[in-house]
Amino acid sequence: MPELTVAYRTYGTLNAARSNAILVCHALTGDQYVAEPHPVTGKPGWWDAVVGRGLPVDTDRYFVVCINVLGGCMGSTGPRSARPDAPGELWGTDFPAVTIHDMVRAQKRLIDHLGITRLFAVVGGSMGGMQVLDWAAAYPDAVFAAVPIATAAYHSAQNIAFHEVGRQAIFADPEWRAGRYWQTGGRPSRGLAVARMCAHITYLSEQALARKFGRRLQHVAKDPSEAINLFGEMFEVESYLRHQGSTFVNRFDANAYLTITRAMDYFDLATDHGGDLAAAFRGTPTRFLLVSFSSDWLFPTAESRAIARALNRAAANVSFVEVETDKGHDAFLLDEPDFHRTLSGFLSGCAEHAGLPR
Amino acid sequence: MSTHDRARLDGEDAVRFVAKNMRLDLRLIAGMIAPNTRVLDIGCGDGTLIEHLFRTLGCDARGIEIDMKEVTRAVGHGLPVMQGDADTDLRHYPDGAFDYVVLSRTLQAVERPREVLRQMLRIGTRAIVSFPNFGHWRLRMQLLTTGRMPMTATWDRHWYETPNIHPCTIRDFFALCEAEGYVVENWLAADDAGRRSLWRRAARLANLFGEQGVFLLRRGVQERNRI
Fold this sequence. Notes:
The complex is a heterodimer.
Chain A: E1 8-11, E2 21-25, E3 51-52, E4 57-58, E5 63-67, H1 100-113, E6 119-125, H2 127-138, E7 143-149, H3 157-172, H4 189-203, H5 206-212, E8 217-219, E9 233-235, H6 236-248, H7 254-266, E10 287-293, H8 301-313, E11 317-323, H9 337-354
Parallel strand pairs in A: 2-5, 2-6, 3-4, 6-7, 7-10, 10-11
Antiparallel strand pairs in A: 1-5, 8-9
Helix pairs in contact in A: 1-2, 3-4, 3-7, 4-6
Chain B: H1 3-8, H2 11-30, E1 38-42, H3 48-57, E2 60-65, H4 68-76, E3 81-83, H5 86-89, E4 98-104, H6 113-123, E5 124-132, H7 137-146, H8 170-180, E6 182-190, H9 203-209, E7 212-219, H10 221-226
Parallel strand pairs in B: 1-2, 1-4, 2-3, 4-5
Antiparallel strand pairs in B: 5-7, 6-7
C-alpha cells in the first residue's frame, strides 16, 4: 500500500514534556469521536462518560488521542477508500486483510508524528483492549501504563462464530453484489443490520435484556406485505434490535465491518510469541490495569484473568478488577461507578509514578 | 482483660480492637522490610501496607486480595493490587520475583498453609508471615475451664463458621519451619497492646503470652538446592 491516511481527534493539551498523552483505542464499530458528538449521527461521543473534563480520563490533565483504525470507514484508509492504482475505483473487497498489529503500527506512526516518544497510557475496551495489549507487547518502552478492558489475548471460537453469522448475513443480502455494491450506489443494509443485531445480543446479558424489555409486546399496524409487521405486534426486544440495526447501517460500511471483524478473529497474541503469552510481556516496564465485567459473556472474566496470570509470569506490575454488573460486555461503555473509580485511581497512581504534575 | 470483660465488648469496641491490632501487625512487618525492595503482600486488604512501603521506604510493593470490594478500593486509590487467591494464584509468579513476600494474618485461613509457604519462598527471597497465636494463655484457659472452643476478639467466630481453618501456635510454626528447612532470620511476638517484653525472645513464653507471631523467613540451603 503506497500511502496511508489515519483520521484522529485530540482532546486536552499536550504538555511541554509531551508526557501526558493517553491513546484511547476504539472497539469494532467505534471511531475517533470519543468525547464529542458524532458527525453522522449527532449522538454524544461513544465514551463521553469516561473521557472529558473531570472524568476518569480527564482532558484537563491528559492529552487524549483517538484514532480511527486502519480498515475503518471514518476517514482512515479502509475498504471505502479510493484505490491509488485504479482511478475511480474503491478498495472494497480487494482491501488487504489487516491485523490488530497493523492497526497498532499505523497508530504508532501517528504518535511518532505527534512527537510523543512515550504514551502515558493506552486505554481501550473490547477490540480496543486487543490494541492495548498489542501496543504493550510491541512497544513496551512507549507505553507507561496499559488498560485493556473487557478483552482477551485471542478471539475465542464462539466469538469468531458470531462474527461469521454476521458476515454471512451481509453476503446473503442481494445488494451485496460480491462486495462491489458501491459501484451501483447501493449497499447491503439489510445484511449489515442483521449482522449488527446478532452482534448486539452478544454485547448485552440475559439479565439486562430481561430488565430492559422482559416479554413486553407492542402493537404495530398489521401489513402482511411487510415482514416487519407480519404478526401485528412485536416484542419490545425485537423493536430495540431492529432500531440498533437500522441506525448502524447509516454510519458503517459493510466492507469495513468485514475487514475489522476479520482482524479481531485473527488476533492471538500468544501465538505471535511462540505460544506463551507471558513471553509477549517479559521484562515489561509497563503498569497494567485489567478490568472485566461479571456478566460479560463475550469477553468473560476468565479471559482477563488469563492475561493477568501471564503478566504475573512475566513479573509485570498488574492490577486486576472484576466489576459486578448485569450489563454484559456493553458495561465498559456505560455508567459503572466502580469501573470509573478504579480507572481514575489507577491513572492518578500511575501519574504519580510517572512524575506527571498534578 | 478477663473473659467476662471481653464478653461485654460491644460491636464498636470489638472493631476498634481489631483495627488497633491490624495496625500493630503491619507496623511490625514494615519494620522487617529493607528500603527500595520488591514486595508482594498477599491478602493486602485495602493496601494499607503496600502504600506505607511505597511512601516511606520507596518499595515496589504490590498486592493480591481475594475480596473484590477491597481490590476495587485499593486500585481506586492508585495501588497495584490484583484480585486473586493465595491458595491458587502464587504458582503463576516466576522464581525470585520479589525480595519479600508478606502474608499477614492469613496463613490460618488458607487451605494449604504449607504449600502457600513453599510458594512464598519460591517467588520471594524472604517471606514475612504473621498469624494470631492459638497458644495464647487465654485460649488455653478457656478450653481448659469450659471445655468449649475458645472465643476471643481475635478468634471471634464459632468453630462451624470460622474462616480460620488452620489455627496454629508460635511453637507449631517453629516446628513447621524446621521440618521444611526454613531459616527463621527474625521473629517476634506481641501481646494485644503491642507490648514487647522479655518473654518475646523465649519461644515457650512467647507462645503463652504472645497474641500474635511475626516471622521473617528465608529458604535454607537444602531447600534452595531442592528448588
